[in-house]
Amino acid sequence: MTSPSLPPLREVIARHGLAAQKSLGQNFLLDLNLTGRIARSAGSLDDHDVVEVGPGPGGLTRALLDAGARRVVAIEKDRRCISALEEIAAVYPGRLEIIEGDALATDMAALVNAPARIIANLPYNIATPLLVGWLQTEPWPPWYDSLTLMFQREVAERIVARPGTKAYGRLGVLAQWRTRARILFDVDRRAFTPPPSVTSSVVELVPRNAPLSEADPRALERVVAAAFGQRRKMLRASLKSLGRDPLPLLEQAQIDPTKRAEELDIEAFCALARAFAAERPS
Ligand code: SAM
């Protein structure tokens, strides 16, 4: 259901001169059935503050408010969108806070009551760094209790990829280490204005109470980046980029040095991260 007092999004875009800019990853959703589906897929929002990154003209923002979100904090970099969003805020008094700024430089935890939910049709150019930042949050469990996010299909596949598959890599290890991640549904490129070149997917990530296995997030990030940086090589070679002799590290973690990154499960990467963090560089 959409608030009858707001005009159609096409009219909003025309009136506020919101021609999509590629540099800001602007692919707008104008189909209110679809934005409603995304909002509903995040579960009941009545008791939650929601962070939305990149509200643009506000299609998903409206849907989140209509779905009953207690409060939406919407962070938008494009100044042109702010007056359009203020019109929505006026229809939902006290429930929409608009922050003009760069989401990558915003301390989101400070803006909401925990546990919040993060729900967004992300700008594709910063989708991965945003996700990695949310996954590296300290302390854990984090200030949010779910992420419901639109990614390019190929990125979504990497987030949920299992060991031994081509898509398995840094993103899958970091995401599945601390969350349960799954693809909810695909969205055809023609649902966006303008259409991007590829299919998109909505992904749900729910934080685990405790990570799959103990590891320091920075150490895990470093060993995973090194291992997958040269994914075709055996670990005894690829891990040299850590600046240490890989063999004692692999021995400590009880990993066969002739294995390749994609053969290691997340627990094995955590063992490697623990060995890396424990060993003082000589
Ligand atoms: N939520 C809207 C929708 O679904 O129609 C717009 C989604 S569009 C894919 C991405 C939005 O993110 C754009 O409005 C863009 O201006 C905004 N954006 C891009 N970079 C940003 C950044 N660094 N911080 C905050 N917003 C950003």
Care to describe what's here?
The chain is an alpha/beta fold. The protein folds into two domains: 9-207, Rossmann fold, CATH 3.40.50; 217-279, Orthogonal Bundle (Helicase, Ruva Protein, domain 3). It contains eleven helices and nine strands. A seven-stranded mixed beta sheet has the order 4-3-2-5-6-9-7. Strand 3 (71-76), helix 4 and strand 4 (96-100) form a beta-alpha-beta unit. The relative contact order is 0.11. S-adenosylmethionine binds at residues 24-29, 53-56, 59-60, 75-78, 81, 102-104, 121, 123, 126. S-adenosylmethionine binds next to strand 1, helix 3 and strand 3.
Secondary-structure map with pairings?
Blueprint: H1 9-15, E1 28-29, H2 32-41, E2 49-53, H3 59-66, E3 71-76, H4 82-91, E4 96-100, E5 116-121, H5 127-135, E6 144-152, H6 153-160, H7 170-178, E7 179-187, E8 192-193, E9 200-207, H8 217-229, H9 235-238, H10 246-252, H11 266-278
Parallel strand pairs: 2-3, 2-5, 3-4, 5-6
Antiparallel strand pairs: 1-8, 6-9, 7-9
Helix pairs in contact: 2-3, 5-7, 8-11
The structure holds S-adenosylmethionine (SAM).
Structure described in brief:
The chain has 282 residues and is of the alpha/beta class. It is 35% helix and 18% strand. The radius of gyration is 21 Å and the shape is elongated.
Task: Name the features.
282 residues; alpha/beta; Rossmann fold; Helicase, Ruva Protein, domain 3; seven-stranded mixed β-sheet; two-stranded antiparallel sheet; elongated; binds S-adenosylmethionine
Largest sheet: 7 strands, mixed
Q: Count the strands?
A: 9
State the order of secondary-structure elements, H for helix, E for strand.
Answer: HEHEHEHEEHEHHEEEHHHH
Overall geometry: elongated
What's the structural domain tally?
A: 2
Structural class: alpha/beta
Give the rounded overall mean pLDDT: 96
CATH class of the largest domain: Alpha Beta
* Rg over C-alpha atoms, rounded to the nearest angstrom: 21 Å
Can you tell me the CATH topology of the largest domain? Answer: Rossmann fold
Give the strand line-up of the largest sheet: 4-3-2-5-6-9-7
From the N-terminal CA to the C-terminal CA, the straight-line distance is: 63 Å
| Percentage of residues in helical conformation | 25-40%
CATH architecture of the largest domain: 3-Layer(aba) Sandwich
Relative strand content: 15-25%
Distinct ligands, ions and cofactors found in the model: S-adenosylmethionine
